[in-house]
Design brief:
The complex is a heterodimer of chains A (252) and B (64). With 252 residues, chain A is mainly α. Chain A has helices at residues 3-33, 36-62, 66-92, 101-114, 125-152, 156-177, 186-208, 220-240. The longest helix of chain A is centred in the first third of the chain and has 31 residues, at 3-33. Chain B has 64 residues and is mainly α. Chain B has one domain (18-62). Chain B is built from three helices and no strands. Chain B has helices at residues 2-16, 20-38, 47-62. Classes of the chains: A mainly alpha (252), B mainly alpha (64). Chains A and B meet through helix 3, helix 7 and helix 8 of A and helix 1, helix 2 and helix 3 of B.
C-alpha cells in the first residue's frame, strides 16, 4: 500500500469511526427506548441512501480531468479539514465543551421516551426517522470524504472499505459495551482527521492549481507533521491565553 | 421556492459550515497559487502559510 493510499484509508477510517460513534449514540437511544427493529430499519435506509450518493457521484467525479478534480477535491478537503481542526483545537484548549456521548444519550433517551406512540404499528415512525436522520447526517460528511479521497486516488473501493471497516468496528464495540462509546477519545480522533484532511487538501489543491511539491508525494511527510504541530501550537497558545478569552458555547 | 431555498441553505451549510470567510479564504489561496504557478514561478509555498493564517483567523472569530 503506497503512502497516499495509507493516508486515504487512515483518514477515511478515523473520520468514519468518529461519525459512527455519534450515530451509534442516537441509534442506541431510540433502539433501547422505542423499537430495535425500527431503529435498524432507519439505519439500513440511511446506509442505502449514502451508498446511492457514493455510487452515483463517484463515477461523475472520477470522470473529471485530474487537475480539475484535484483542485475541487483539495478545496473541499481544506474547507472540511479547517472546520474539524477549529473545533478540535477549541475543545483541546478547553474553550469549547467536549462532545459528551453520555449526555447526548441521556437527552436522546429522554426525548424518545417522551415522544408519543401511535397505535401498535410494526414500524415505530419516531425510532425510524430519528435513526435515519442520525445516520444520514453523520454519514454525509463521511460520504464526501470517501468520494473526494477515493476519486482523487482513483480508488473509491479502498475508501469505501475503510469506511465499512470503521462502522463494523464501532458497531461491534457498541454491541459489546451495550451503551454509548463515551470513552472513545473523540477529540483526539477529530484533531487527527482535521490534520489529515487539511494536509491532503493543501497538497492536492496546490497541485490542481498548477504547482508541484518538492519531493512529490513525499511532501506529505512534511505537510502532515507541520499541520499537526501548528494545531498543537495553537492549542498551547489558546490554553495560555484562555483567561482573557470567552468560552465558545455551541457544542456542535 | 421556500423548499428550494431551504435545500440550498442546507447545501451551503453542509459545505461551508458556520464560517464562510474560511471557505472564501481557501478559494482565494488556491487562486493565488494558480496565478503564481501560471507566471512560471514555483507556487507550493503559498498554501502552508495561507492555511495557518486561515486557521488562526477562524479561531479568533470563534472566540469573539
Amino acid at each position: 500500500m503506497s503512502g497516499p493510499e495509507l493516508g486515504l484509508a487512515l483518514s477515511v477510517f478515523l473520520a468514519c469511526a468518529v461519525e459512527a460513534v455519534e450515530a451509534l449514540t442516537v441509534v442506541l437511544a431510540v433502539g433501547i427506548t422505542r423499537s430495535w427493529s425500527s431503529a435498524i430499519c432507519g439505519c439500513a435506509a440511511a446506509a442505502a441512501a449514502l451508498t446511492l450518493v457514493v455510487g452515483g457521484l463517484g463515477p461523475a467525479l472520477t470522470s473529471l480531468r485530474l487537475d480539475v478534480l484535484r483542485l475541487v477535491v483539495g478545496g473541499l478537503l481544506l474547507v472540511f479539514g479547517l472546520q474539524w481542526l477549529r473545533k478540535a483545537v477549541l475543545r483541546a484548549a478547553g474553550l469549547k465543551a467536549l462532545h459528551d456521548e453520555q449526555a447526548t444519550f441521556a437527552a436522546e433517551t429522554a426525548a424518545a421516551t417522551a415522544a408519543a406512540r401511535h397505535g401498535s404499528r410494526k414500524i415505530d415512525p419516531y425510532a425510524f426517522v430519528v435513526a435515519f436522520k442520525g445516520v444520514l447526517l453523520e454519514g454525509l460528511e463521511v460520504a464526501v470524504i470517501v468520494l473526494t479521497f477515493g476519486a482523487n486516488q482513483h480508488d473509491i473501493p479502498l475508501a469505501a472499505a475503510a469506511a465499512v471497516a470503521a462502522v463494523a468496528v464501532v458497531a461491534l464495540a457498541g454491541l459489546t459495551a451495550r451503551g454509548p462509546l463515551a470513552r472513545v477519545p473523540e477529540n483526539a480522533m477529530k484533531l487527527c482527521v482535521g490534520v489529515m484532511l487539511t494536509s491532503f487538501g493543501m497538497f492536492w489543491g496546490a497541485e490542481g492549481a498548477g504547482t508541484s511539491w518538492p519531493g512529490g508525494d513525499g511532501a506529505l511527510l512534511a505537510l502532515i507533521p507541520a499541520v499537526l504541530l501548528t494545531s498543537l501550537g495553537m492549542v498551547r497558545w489558546l490554553r495560555h491565553h484562555a483567561g482573557a478569552l470567552a468560552v465558545v458555547d455551541d457544542a456542535a | 421556492m421556500n423548499a428550494l431555498a431551504r435545500v440550498l441553505g442546507e447545501v451551503w451549510s453542509f459545505f461551508v459550515g458556520d464560517d464562510w470567510l474560511t471557505a472564501a479564504g481557501v478559494v482565494a489561496a488556491l487562486a493565488v497559487t494558480a496565478l503564481v504557478a501560471d507566471a512560471g514561478i514555483a507556487a507550493w509555498w503559498v498554501m502552508p502559510p495561507a492555511v495557518a493564517a486561515l486557521l488562526a483567523l477562524s479561531l479568533r472569530r470563534a472566540m469573539r
